[in-house]
Structures are given as structure tokens and as C-alpha cells.
Write a structure and sequence with these properties.
- Helix 2 (about 20-30) packs antiparallel against helix 4 (about 50-65) and helix 6 (about 95-105) packs parallel to helix 7.
- The protein is elongated.
- The strands form two sheets. Strands 5-4-3-6-7-9-8 form a seven-stranded mixed β-sheet, with helices on both faces. A two-stranded antiparallel sheet has the order 1-2.
- It is of the alpha/beta class and about 280 residues long.
- The protein folds into two domains: about 5-65, Ubiquitin-associated (UBA) domain (Helicase, Ruva Protein, domain 3, Orthogonal Bundle); about 85-275, Vaccinia Virus protein VP39 (Rossmann fold), CATH 3.40.50.
- About 35% of the residues lie in helices and about 20% in strands.
- The chain is built from eleven helices and nine strands.
Amino acid sequence: MATVKENLLRAAELSESDSPRLDLEVLLCHLLGKSRAWLYTWPEHPLSDAQQAQFNALIERRIAGEPVAHLTGTREFWSLPLNVNRSTLIPRPDTEVLVEVVLELCPQSAANVLDLGSGTGAIALALASERPHWQIIAVDTMPAAVALAEENRTQLGFRNVEVLRSDWFSALSARTFDVIVSNPPYIESRDPHLREGDVRFEPLTALVAEEQGLADIRKIAEDARAHLAEHGLLAVEHGWEQGKAVRALFAALGYREVETRPDYAGRERITLGRR
């Protein structure tokens, strides 16, 4: 029987992964129900025949390109464990910048917040964890994504978040918000990256937008004006080459204090403006 240590030496099998060793650690932790610290405390622990067969199957699926988050059914975001599935995007670390920006610019203890295209609910739930007195609505147009976000909300116990099905603002009537945030589809349909990595296993509806990836951002920015309170903040995530275009779009629509913030790699990622 192979040990934990021996299985962690199989990184070469995951040559297409950007983080093969980490992939092995995460998959082993998931399989054994243990922490990463445990793996290195008990490296000589042998896997049973059944566990080894399950681990081999997980590795084969990872070699085929399936995201680790889909293999484990979970992804951590803002230190929150979120359930994930193929109905929506896997939360990315760079989206945490959007959370950071909102928390920085909106220090008030009470606020009404809207998360558009919420997917797993990651942004809404992260904000809820930091601002328990904020009232947050998370919306998505896909029923499966709405169900997933509600599952995560229930699991984490955040009572200050409401999850709704809505095509952007369609179900919100005349409600207004102090903050509107969104990580909308922003990839151009011919982008070659759609055929690479984890995005191959994620729904195109959550990734692709017309107008060279700007159609949904334009729709949000146009319609948000009727739903933002005076001085309200709109903040959207976008592609790293879209900052200039999004700033111009915001400015043309009359937003003030328009600026773009970088992601963790220093690339333009979050554009914001105020009504």
C-alpha cells in the first residue's frame, strides 16, 4: 500500500497543472478528511486499497483537466468554504480584490448592497462576513446558481443575505442600493483562453459577453444609475486589458470618481464609480 508521502511524490503526473503539488495535497486532504498539516505529520500513513483506488481516479480526472474545485466540490473564498459545481464559475482569488475595495470605500456600519450575477454567492457572503449589519441581496439569472448560492448562505448561516433569481435588475423593481457590485461575464467569444484550464468546465454564459466582452458591463452600468442611492458606489470586475474601455464607459454615463484598481498581479481588474 502506498503511503501519503509516496502519493505526494506523484506531481509529475500532473504536468499540465500550474500547481501539481498543491493539487495532490488538496485531493488527499479531501479524500482522507484531514488537514495539510496532518499530511506532513503522518507521511508514512498508508492508504487503504479503496482509498488508493479513489485517489487514482481523482488524479486521472485532474490529468484530463477537470478543476480541483469540481473534484472536491468546494473552494475557499475570503476564508469561507463554498460549495461549487458546474452551474457557475469557480471563485477566483483576484475577485477578493473587489471585496477589499468595497470594504475600503464603504466603511459605514449600515448599507444596502446588491451583488449582480452572484454565482456561488462568494462576493455577497464575503461582504456579509465582514459587515453583519449590511443588508445584502445576491441575484443570478440561472436557477441552479441561485440554488447553489442559497445553499452556501444557509450553510454559513448569514441572515443578512437574501438570494433571488433576477436577470440583472429585472426582479428588483425600484429598489435602491448604497453599493452595487458585480463580477459579470467579460470574455470575448473568440478568446483562445476559453479552450484552456478550468474555464473549459465552466458555463460559457457566466464567461462570455458580446461587444468584445463589454456588453454586460455596459448593461449593468446603464441600469445601475436608477438603482444607486445618491453617492452610491458601482464596482465591477473585468478583464485585465479592459480597464481603459470600462473607465470611458463609466465616465460617458456620468459616474464620478471613476478609477481602476489592480489585482494581485498588478493588472487592471476592478473599475468603480459613484452616482
